[in-house]
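Problem: given the chain below (171 residues), write out its structure.
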Amino acid sequence: LRKAQEFAEKVHADLIIGFDIEGLMAVMKIRDKKGVWQELTNSQQSSLIFGNLMHELENQSSLPPKNRAFLLKPYVVTNMLKAIAKHYDIKTEELPLGFRHMAEFKRDISRLFGDKEHIFFFLVDAYYGGSFIGYERDAIEIGFLATWVSALAKSEGKTIFDSLNDIYLET
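Solution.
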């Protein structure tokens, strides 16, 4: 991310996102309070996106019904996500490591309910990826959501770092 960081300095960017060649992993850097670039851990990335997404859905009175909302994550991923999910009445399912376990669970629940467009899923894996829309790990989707979080923070006069701190303080 060195070249991206050099460019980000020139254009005064708030967020740097780097993807692996397959688009399965996203690595992100944000500026801290002192303006120094800090690489986000997978747990921080996931908490930042999931927390902001839930907060915005709540602001729009659009939170999904609690019996139709699921956070799917491996056991090894941060419990901060569980705290965020609990705050918004979303059921957390902790599954074995591997995105296929989450995709299988999502398919099974979708079949059970029959109308998957009315079920809310947020999938987080241990390898800098996740999914809100599909059944596969998709770093491009996560990168898009991180960009949305960046724009949201800026529109509120905050930095992404402030937004991440807000999530930790509120949960």
